Write a sequence for this structure.
């Protein structure tokens, strides 16, 4: 179990240090190519998630400010 975990850990460390372009040029059928695709996909998903969260919170903030402004208008 320890050996498996260590291997997995090493793989995860290598996962982000793989140079995709050189791999694709050397051997198109390389197993690591799948890691590249997976890594790029994961990075893309993470980026989308951050963008979504940013815009979602920004939108909520704007809506809150508008509600506050509307309340102030009613008060005055």
């Amino acid at each position: 179990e320890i050996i498996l975990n260590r291997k997995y850990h090493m793989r995860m460390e290598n996962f982000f240090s793989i140079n995709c372009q050189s791999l694709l040029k050397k051997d198109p059928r390389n197993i690591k190519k799948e890691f590249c695709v997976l890594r790029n996909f994961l990075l893309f998903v993470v980026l989308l998630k951050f963008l979504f969260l940013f815009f979602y919170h920004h939108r909520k903030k704007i809506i809150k400010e508008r509600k506050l402004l509307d309340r102030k208008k009613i008060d005055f």
Notes: Residues 25 and 67 are 56 Å apart (CA to CA).
